[in-house]
Amino acid sequence: MEKSPAEDPSQAGKTQQQGAEDNVPKSGERPDQGTAPAPDHYRPDPQHERDESVIPAPDVANAKYQHPILAQPPEEFTGLKLEERARVAAGVTAVIKSMEFNWSEAGVSRGTRGLLKMNQKDGFDCSSCAWPDPDDHRSVAEFCENGAKATASDADDKAAGPEFFAKYSLAQLSRMTDRDQNNAGRLTHPMVKRPGDNHYSPIAWQDAFQLVADNLNALDSPHEALFYTSGKVPNEPAFLFQLFAKLLGTNNLPDCSNMCHESSGAALSPTLGLGKGSVTLNDIHEAEVILVIGQNPGTNHPRMLTALQKAKRNGAKIIAVNPLPEAGLLAFKNPQDFMNPLRALGALLGDGTQITDLFLQVRVDGDMALLRGIMKHLFEAEDLNPGAVIDRPFIDKYTTGFESFEQNIRNTSWEDIEELSGISRAQLLEAANMLATKQKIITCWAMGVTQQRQGVQTIQEIVNLQLMKGAIGKPGAGTCPVRGHSNVQGDRTMGIWEQPTKQFQDALAKEFNFTPPYEHGYDTVEAIKAMYKGKTKVFFSLGGNLLAAGPDTEVIAEGMRKQKLTVFVGTKLNRGHLVTGETSLLLPCFTHLDVDMQKSGHQMTSCENSMGVVSQNKGVLVPLEGQMMSEVAILAGIAIATFGDKINIADWVAMTENYDVIRDHISRVIPGFEGFNEKLRRPGGFYLPNGPRERKFTTKNGKANFTTTELQHYQRELEPGQLILMTVRSHDQFNTTIYDYNDRYRGVLNERRVLFMNPQDIADRGLQPKDLIDITSHYKGEKRTVEKFIAVPYDIPKGNVAAYFPEANPLVPVGSVAKTSNTPTSKYVVVTVVPARKTVGAPVEVRMAAEA
């Protein structure tokens, strides 16, 4: 093996050429992933460690009058137009929209160069979703509309520098829409807001580092600091960030994963031994049946549609479970087909590939009941065909808990199943019949499941279904939690976790010769509570936008205002940068596609995708003129200023000058990363160990565990007139980043302040379509109200409504969380709807497609 570039500087930044694919698994084979990992045990019952005291509901509706800097998006309407919802995703329109946005943001030259290197083996990793890239051949255009927008935003050739911040006060900036804030340009200079200031002003980097150091060193306890992370952060800076927090003495490492797939980790770790999915991209292609539950791939993970299309062409059946009939779940026109002479005409003029064979329009929070109904049918089928439906040999050899689970499913009444799910027994039989004789089964899910009250338990039922069919640990079968941000899974692997394992901390202690903290820190919800109650003084955010991503927006805002110092490392302006502590720093960093030149040469970082593949990320565009620094350099500068001679300064300098030094540290701390530098240079990267993929279940008992869950009847607790709200993204949005006001697939254009309602629910409240409404959430006797939304009739189950986040996040109580995972229940908010008390503002333009 060649020397690590940390020892041989001539190798720094070098990669093998794209095309050498000796490490690519062949169809039907499992990838080379090394030794199975150490156990990944999740705390079985962490509830007693959490702050259960009640935080009073903030005055959400009147907050705009109480604070000059708006924490919520402004209420002005932008001119709603309604069209028929789309019946097919992607196609020519997606290509045109991708190019329009890319070239308008980045310019033709920069924009095109960025797109052509995105997701290539010798290029950079898309900064949006974590859907995996093909192991073998990759298209010249290996991106989707979502990724094109994210890359265009990162490649923006406009600058938001000192002149921009001198022109606009924080209050003025807060009155911009979230779209206009993002589109203001790239952050280019370090900026500071000092006590009493209403503008950000320039600050020298060294002064910024010292300001952070002084505030951290002045804390009475290291636990008065919070270190928040976005899933966009690559592995190398993520590793340094968690190391920095632990050198300070705290595990207060809340991150965006706490709000999205924490429920997946909480469910998968005790049942299968690893809090990650078990499938590869090739497994998707080979599956016989794929269930897609609580997910909208057409908007949130568009490249997944290519994999589903390939599976369909290979004969797979797809069952979609969702409250909304999303375009991406119905049909797909693959833009790649336009380059294939045999398929181009069909892709242009045809109806596209039908994706879903069976659509089950489940009620919000009804997925657990639905899964029980399918499994109840499967048990009945097994009774009629012994040995033909349930995989008894697999169950006997690899699992425990089957008998209790089976009895629990058989005892569930059909009345409860149909009432809670909203799906008939006959429809559930149709789904069960698709599964009954198959074993190559994959279940995919996203936040439509994880953010329910019963999110963890619902995912455990998904695992139960996979286990009873023996559909795990073999080609074409397994679990597939579909992650959001590009490296949200990798950040957790790197140690961004408020509850680290003893094994991880011991390895870190040995590598860096210090005693790390072993007590658990704050997750995101607990961090919000701690800020609000004044228990913390420093909030340090490496990317992200907690204000817009988290629940209870005004509670977060009040907590931010109580901090002595807020530190935001980012690439573009967002609302979270404006609601600050007494002093605040805004520190500009590179994006994935910026060329990162350090002393040893052109650096690369790495990301881990949803399926456990770690691959390189090497920027291709010269950064805009300014003073941006890499995340690694920023963290090293702050660490040296904070700790001085208490750390090995020479090592931190070396890590900044050559990121291979960081990777050598990682290789000695984290199982699966042995030979990290060499393996990262393979075209396409490498697979991390995954025990469930090989039927090696590293649970405490060494078995895959069936779970006996309790089916809650939350819907029966509703009072007359109450509805269940879920928050969703629009099509021109990725996480909290708003690119434009359109939601093309749902037929909503030029507006975001809308509430999707069943037409009967609109009529029952004496409303008309397009009426202005106020929405109030109800939780433990408390109320939160957002004003000036527009009622939009939509195909959604009666009793359910949907709205975009972050606009609807003020309605989500910080105390309403999923069991075990502590994830905010953004997919289960009890609300009432009334006519708006105020109608001031711009007129609402509503033009139905039929009227155009």
Automatic annotation (TrEMBL):
Transmembrane segments: none
Keywords, alphabetical: 4Fe-4S, Iron, Iron-sulfur, Metal-binding, Molybdenum, Oxidoreductase
InterPro entries assigned to the protein according to its UniProt record, in alphabetical order: Asp_de-COase-like_dom_sf, MopB_CT_YdeP, MoPterin_dinucl-bd_dom, Mopterin_OxRdtase, Mopterin_OxRdtse_a_bac, Prok_molybdopt-oxidoreductase, YdeP_MopB
Pfam families, alphabetized: Molybdopterin, Molydop_binding
Domain annotation Molybdopterin dinucleotide-binding: ranges: 723-827
Cofactor: Mo-bis(molybdopterin guanine dinucleotide); [4Fe-4S] cluster
Superkingdom to which the source organism belongs: Bacteria
Ranges annotated as biased composition (Basic and acidic residues): 23-32, 40-52
Statement: the UniProt record of this protein carries the keyword Magnesium: no
Residue stretches making up the Molybdopterin oxidoreductase domain: 186-567
Region (Disordered), start-end ranges: 1-52
Similarity section: Belongs to the prokaryotic molybdopterin-containing oxidoreductase family.
Protein name, per record: Formate dehydrogenase, A chain
